Amino acid sequence: MGKYRILKTEGRAKRAEFETVHGTIQTPVFMNVGTAAAIKGAVATEDLERIGTQVELSNTYHLHVRPGDEVVKKLGGLHKFMVWDKPILTDSGGFQVFSLATLRKIKEEGVYFNSHVDGRKIFMGPEESMQIQSNLASTIAMAFDECPSSVADRTYVQNSVDRTTRWLARCKMKMAELNQREDTINRSQMLFGINQGAIYPDIRICHAKQISEMELDGYAVGGLAVGETHEEMYYILEETVPFLPQDKPTYLMGVGTPANILEGVERGVDFFDCVYPSRNGRHGHVYTNHGRLNLLNARYELDDRPIEDGCGCPACRRYSRAYIRHLLKAKEMLGMRLCVLHNLYFYNTMMAEIRAALDEGRFASYKKAKLEGLISESGC
Length: 380
Prior knowledge:
Residues 254-260 are annotated as: RNA binding. By secondary structure, the chain is α/β, with parallel strands linked by helices.
């Protein structure tokens, strides 16, 4: 079981550290998303070390489909496979139940899928998800859940949440069994439960209380950033997070923009992940402290400045906006790679700044100044 220690608080915001078998995680933390055991955009493991990555996140469903979790196990687990010795969190595959809606059928025992790669039939339930994640040997495994749509009706959401609670009990039992086996690679694998309930605060709170009694290693808030407004998301966090154990890490799944992260930290969240920095980077959209830039714009054709003055990322230390724009226009992979590296460095650096601000008791003023700088974030 991971050891979670709160070092400082400011309002509901927490500065903590979380000990794991693969190293201690300083929180708040942004996990860099490598869905299929690699960050999209030709980012290597040594790049992750250079840009200050603490935790890499991979996806159970995608690795089960390709190359197969049994293959990864035979090669010594995910850490050995991708040559990364720091913490890895694996998503349970539950979100794919939501995102692959046209290809699935949900039953009490689990979910019947058609693979998005070759159409073959797949069954995944709580036990299967735990077995796959045990084969992958990640540091933290996520419980198998259903992520109901934010616009689903109340009856559907309540039934879905009840089933997710039953699935969580099965996940806990299966993981305890797997961690006792001699052939399990990581017998210290941890389990995080997931709070669901769409945008119904009373369902969320009731579910938070139920799963808090299960004595898990950490707790996630799932099913947000899936269509609801930012205001609705912040309201649900305000209502729900106080009912999750304060002596365990809290993870807001799939979130988000720099502004979302600042708001999440203020509401007591420790862990974040999102595909935005890598996805936006691959399309030439880069984050700066003065908003987001679209490097494909003509205005950068002769711009010999780095993406952001003073930035220590591999792109800004060497290359100009004009050169990176040229690479993107020429469809050279290096352009994507440099933008992704910059964006992940920006996120990782922002999290280090947040931790320092919390250490020094100035998070409120840091957040205000940062948000003022990011005002044009959705823009240029």
